[in-house]
Amino acid sequence: MSRATSGQRGDLDVLEEVWSELPTSFKRELEQRLLRRINERCKRQINAGDYDATVALQDLYGDFVDSIADDNRFTDAVPRKVGEDHASRLVFQRLIDELEERNTILYVYDRQRVRSRVAEVTRYFALLRQRFVGEDYEFTPSLTKMVKMDIQSREKPKWGEDGKRINSIVRDIYQDVRTSDPAAELADAFDTTGDWQDAVEEALTLVRELCHELGMTGLAKYQGRAFQRLYLQSVTDDNDGTARVITASTGGGKTEAFLFPLLTYALTAAQANLNGARALLAYPRTDLCDNQFERIVHYLYTISDLIEADDSTPFNELPFTVNLQHSSSDDVEIDCPECGGRMSAEDDFECSEDSDHVVDYVSTGNQSQADIFITTPDTLHRRLMDPYGQNQFWKRGHPPKFVVLDEVHVYTDQYGMHVANLMRRLKATMSAVADEQDPVLVASSATISNAEDFTKRIFEASDAEQIKPYSKEDLEEMDDSRSEDLEPELEEIGWEYLVFVKSTEPRTVQIPQGDDVFKPRSEWEEFDETNVTNLSTMIQVAFAFYHTILKERPEDDDAKDKILGFVDSIDSVKRLGDYIQDAEGTDDNDDAGLYSLRKPDAFLPDTEQTNPDCPKELFRGSAASHETAVCEPLPPNPELNPCPVYEAGECWWTLQDDFLESMDVYLHKSGRTETPDGTGVNDDAWDMMVTTSALEVGFDHPSIIGTFQYRAPMNIPGFVQRKGRGGRDPGDQPISVVVLGTFPEDSFYFHHEELLSNPSDEYLKISLDEENEFVRTQHIVSAIFDYINVQHQDVSDEIYRRLEMPELINILETDREEIVAWLDGAFSSSDLDFLEGVLDDLTDYIHLTEMALAPHEQLEESGGFEKFWEALRIESGTKSKQIEREKEQLQKLLTQFEMLEGLDAAGGDTE
């Protein structure tokens, strides 16, 4: 029942009084509810084919009243002398006006209807044409067949006060340690149980202080579970070989879930003076390696500061180091953890802004020993066999304790087979070096549903456990009493938009020229022809996307104004980037790019008038809320202020304000960022970055607010990762646009768009054929060289670097039983006859290298030829010496070839 009306008090006074009493969080909540309803109603209309979607304020108000009817946060804020009905109308209108002022919605028609900004942009995509400077838009070809829109909730784990306090996590871990026995390597290192427990306590205390320093007084509950399980598994004898897989949403803190226990173990092992590595972290992309390397460096910098500031710690300085290894690690650059300048491996990580800022606990390349190694599976594959890995791992007393595979959803198909067999080789080598030390095996991913089964198989572990934040559905499925005391650990933080654009069929289109524009098509004599392709749609969508979506460039906070685009071909990166940059550029008359042909010139009288089709004469001179407007302040509509250009989709109403300039396009491929003209860059001046799967994971730029995907993605988990690159902050509402072509797979995904926007677990399963015979054969051969690298360290360098084949043959023959046992330990699921057969084939092949390069009786009488392996070997020394040696070998081969030609001319046998 309503209270009395406000009487003589003005509406503004009433609104101000009510508004000031409403909790800020509640006003934000109400605003987001309204925006979500507007978007949902626009979505239904768009997906039904009505691209001029609108929502009546009257309908929204009815929903609004229902939502606050029994909410004390609203009723308590309304004074007794003010009617609730009247107050609700005023608050509703204030919320709508604020949404409109921030450009998240638009008033349409007579200000009694609204449309969301995303729905407006989707309308532009639906009406998109291929434009050319100087051409009449009425004759240019349409590029879009259909569009669809979807909205999906975004969730993140609860942390902070809603998580578990770090003090409580540390206390629980230490209580378990007090009743446990140490791991074997720690038991040998410490004289007494008390010494071991003291080391554990000091390590835990330091990492707790690290969390406090980083503002992480409370971790997510799943992070706490991971910390406890992984650290206890590493320092106690309670390690049954179970692998752990950490799964949480993109940006949900998976890295900290395994990194904090890893760092704590490294601190513990440092106090034990263990000679060896602490951890090996493998990432599927070099860019992701670099990203995680920088993150770890910043954590280590904070730990180093804490040690320096506290004399009570057992360390005088940071007790461990980190090394980055991959094909281009020597070119890496990171932000200075002290001042934000730049540090590069080339300059030994000396800050570009202050030479006193140097991090001396990091290294790159394959020459340095370290405690924590960050690498790729391909680099690790080489380190198992070569002398660099021998020096870094196997000549030291203890191999890495932690083995981490991040983003394991990438390890599918042949790459997955490769990594699975690589893990078997790694475990076999680690066991041979220190069979008493059990490794801690960790995987992580945001997009995998068969997590435990996959993790168990890729590591060949005895068992696997998934650690994740519990959802409401997870708790309902639990069949034990534990669920009664648990609460859901995920919270909704907003939503994300997805727009699916279906291209028209590729075709050739005629565009009339001159006076033929006024004639029927059958009478055209002068015309140009243009080809319409799937790529044409992507190009136009790309710059429509950037210029029309809602972007922010606040003075204090991070901007939200960058777009990351994905294609699945390196060639397409270059081609698409070139075309977009060309469309954004200038022509011979210094006119702006093609986007400017869609500017609402009548609405922007103070800007350069570039839209040749804008019918300025149709619009009235001013409007109350837009003093400089020369047309109505609302988007044109057929009933009140008709505009044929807007109705045709050739006036982009939201192309306004600070985003009227051309965007800068960068390309990222093969680990290199460059401009479309091929110039390498290392800055942040891009507006749109076109890339491949290289930036699919680990590229966490805070300014990315939109992503696009050209053509059907290679797989669904990969697409989920790609759209997760946008909107890293909780308050963001990112947009992902998928431009689908005319191929069968594109059509499939357009008609089943839910597979991309909200895939079920069935489509997030990662397949793995770890016993594939062809891939396994390659790794069996590699494992033989792993054996030599560990068991014959005195000669393995000569064999690997200088092709010392007689020594290799001797080892293959004399150590045959030991090698077979090694292979059987690494590949226990393979048949023993198969393993021996590969060894026999390799031995036979190596024997062939003993043959002369070109055996011939007549030539043997004059001195003979080198053995094949001798001709290929490279002398040790500098690169220049190696080059000279190769030149000599080449000249020797040419001389031998000339001798053979002479024999042939004399009638000799040159077979």
Automatic annotation (TrEMBL):
<keyword id="KW-0547">Nucleotide-binding</keyword>
<keyword id="KW-0347">Helicase</keyword>
<keyword id="KW-0378">Hydrolase</keyword>
<dbReference type="GO" id="GO:0004386">
    <property type="term" value="F:helicase activity"/>
</dbReference>
<dbReference type="Pfam" id="PF00270">
    <property type="entry name" value="DEAD"/>
</dbReference>
<dbReference type="InterPro" id="IPR011545">
    <property type="entry name" value="DEAD/DEAH_box_helicase_dom"/>
</dbReference>
<dbReference type="InterPro" id="IPR014001">
    <property type="entry name" value="Helicase_ATP-bd"/>
</dbReference>
<dbReference type="InterPro" id="IPR027417">
    <property type="entry name" value="P-loop_NTPase"/>
</dbReference>
<protein>
    <submittedName>
        <fullName>DEAD/DEAH box helicase</fullName>
    </submittedName>
</protein>
<feature type="domain" description="Helicase ATP-binding">
    <location>
        <begin position="235"/>
        <end position="466"/>
    </location>
</feature>
<keyword id="KW-0067">ATP-binding</keyword>
